[in-house]
Amino acid sequence: MVLDDLGSSLRGTLDKLRGKSRISEEDVEEVVKEIQRSLLSADVDVSLVMELSDNIKTRSLEEEPPAGTPARDFILHIVYEELVDLIGESTELPLEEQTILLAGLQGSGKTTTSAKMAWWFSTKGLRPAVIQTDTFRPGAYDQAKEMCRRAEVDFYGDPDGDDPVQIARDGLEATIDADVHIVDTAGRHALEDDLIEEIEDIESVVDPDVGLLVLDAAIGQGAKEQAQQFDESVGIDGVAITKLDGTAKGGGALTAVDQTDSSIAFLGTGEEVQDIERFEPNGFISRLLGMGDLAQLTERVERAMEQTGVEDEDWDPEDMLEGQFTLKDMQKQMEAMNNMGPLDQVLDMIPGFGGGIKDQLPDDAMDVTQDRMRTFEFIMDSMTEAEMEYPRAIGASQIRRIARGSGTSEESVRELLQQYKMMEKTLKQFQGMGSDKEMQRMMQ
Ligand code: GDP
């Protein structure tokens, strides 16, 4: 499907960025090119692709990653956000009484989707009914009836009727006890005036709450015109993409979503009534990019952005590299790490740390659990500016005062000072490693 290909190629490109702390313009170009190539070959509209790639390019080069976030993760976060923006949220479908009108060309999968959707609503505890108004396609009645029997949902149709509008009217009456009415309509091989007229007439009788356009995933550029026409005549709120179990790319459907300013409601993944999924953009994109924890990662980046966005004018990370590591620096480091999640995971995300460097550090240096961090924060809050700047000058009486003031123990204060000394020593080792740019970035 559309992003399958994107997933693997983009993963490859992004993996090349692993360990890099700064992203160059060429890196961004390469990522963007991969995205363009995949989307264009999947039939996504050219202007849409250009818009998406421009946004990714601009943001990757202009925005600053928050402290402790590797550049690769930051780009991934941007790509993810822009894709979510392009694909949009799932069409809103409250679990309550409603009437849904299905539109689409013949063979797109309308009839199948109507029964599948009814089945889906029934699993949510609602009572759905399918009303089949397709008098044009021979066999539509039998097919819908049989699928609704299998889905165990109410069905109305008239095998002898030839007036779809009348059938719709009668159907609503006959299924008055149902909560969700799903009205299937006739398609044609192409957009014809009489099809549009017919669906407009049905729409005025049915007065739907939701108009869904059913699109075969194989649809290409034709999606644009179709989406536009149906949107103008009956109003499209969402799209159901069918046959995603096949080899089709589905890019046209994305174009339709954009064209109608709508969203994706359902995905059809087979011929059986249960082969339907409610569209979930977050999970969908994460899965397609082959990164299960993408939503989580992106949340973490967002949180870090919000919380480390507060600039402290007195604190300059560069100072740490010039040998003046103070408790203030340690506090800032801890804040940044706290905002990013468990320390171990955070260290894995820091470029240069994933490999051997982490193992070379003394175990104790890393052994700052979340609880200890919280205690340390209380302690540091009780210290004076001078104590924060010159922790080595802190004596026994000060330790007593700080412990009392922070509601902790003298032992904890000593522990913090011990930790500070260890970090200072570790940092000195790094400084000894010379002008490794990656290390410098890491400390920011
Ligand atoms: P309609 O003319 O729009 O009502 O289309 P149908 O519902 O009759 O579907 C046309 C064909 O596509 C039928 O053979 C369906 O079984 C098949 N079909 C519909 N949805 C899916 C799907 O998600 N996956 C697969 N593999 N086939 C589907």
How would you sum up this structure, described in words?
The protein starts with a helix and ends with a helix. It has about 450 residues and is an alpha/beta fold. Helix 2 (about 25-40) packs antiparallel against helix 3, helix 4 packs across helix 11 and helix 14 (about 325-340) crosses helix 18 (about 370-380). It folds into 3 domains: about 1-90 and about 290-295, Four Helix Bundle (Hemerythrin (Met), subunit A); about 100-280, P-loop containing nucleotide triphosphate hydrolases (Rossmann fold), CATH 3.40.50.300; about 315-440, Signal recognition particle, SRP54 subunit, M-domain (434 Repressor (Amino-terminal Domain)), CATH 1.10.260.30. The relative contact order is 0.11. The chain contains 22 helices and 8 strands. The chain has an 8-stranded mixed sheet with strand order 3-2-4-1-5-6-7-8, with helices on both faces. It binds guanosine-5'-diphosphate (GDP).
